Every structure is written in C-alpha cells, then in structure tokens.
Inverse folding.
C-alpha cells in the first residue's frame, strides 16, 4: 500500500478538522460490524461511548502521526480497538475497507483544505 506523505493536521484549515471528524463518524455509523458491537453491547454498557472514543482515536491518529501514513497502521488500530474495547474480531474484510475509506476521506479533506 502506498504511504501518504506530508499529511498532518497543521495542513488543515479549521473547517476541515470538523469535516474530517464528521466523516469518520459517518463511516463508522455505516460499518455493520461496529454497529452490531455497539447495539449488542459487546464492549459492555459503555459500548456507545467506546465508539465515540474510536472516532476520537482515529482523528488523533490522522492528526498526530508523522508522515508517511500507511493504511496498514490504521487497520491495526481498528483491529486492536475492536478486540480490546468490544471483545470482537471482525474477519469479513470490513476493517480493511473502512481503513481504505478513511484514508481516502483524509486525502480528500487535505486537498480540499489547500
């Protein structure tokens, strides 16, 4: 997978930051595996809060990781969070799909903010 060079939160204008957070949240709201984990409280009673924390963690990953950013690192973050916070392993390929979507959204937000 190709790395993304030169992408940091300092390249963003203020509106792009909130757009990125909303886009991450939107992707997660359409992710069946994560939604099942939340609805069935696989992460306990605070499963919904854990999903909000995941949005924040992914946004922080984009904001604070030093370039280049690799989709595989984002996949690992998602996999570990689902395993540790929701006690679940998703093996349907959706982690990879979600990570790829998020990377594309990040790139689009960066280009749009220049």
């Amino acid at each position: 997978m190709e790395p993304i060079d030169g992408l940091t939160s300092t390249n963003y204008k203020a509106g792009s930051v909130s757009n990125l957070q909303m886009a991450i949240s939107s992707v997660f709201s359409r992710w069946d595996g994560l939604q099942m984990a939340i609805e069935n409280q696989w992460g306990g009673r605070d499963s919904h809060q854990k999903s909000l924390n995941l949005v924040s963690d992914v946004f922080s990953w984009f904001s604070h990781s030093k370039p280049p950013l690799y989709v595989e690192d984002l996949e690992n973050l998602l996999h570990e969070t689902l395993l540790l916070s929701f006690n679940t392993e998703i093996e349907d390929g959706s982690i990879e799909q979600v990570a790829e979507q998020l990377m594309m959204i990040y790139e689009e937000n960066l280009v749009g903010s220049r």
Residues 9-113 form one domain. The chain has one domain: 9-113. DSSP finds five helices and no strands in the chain.
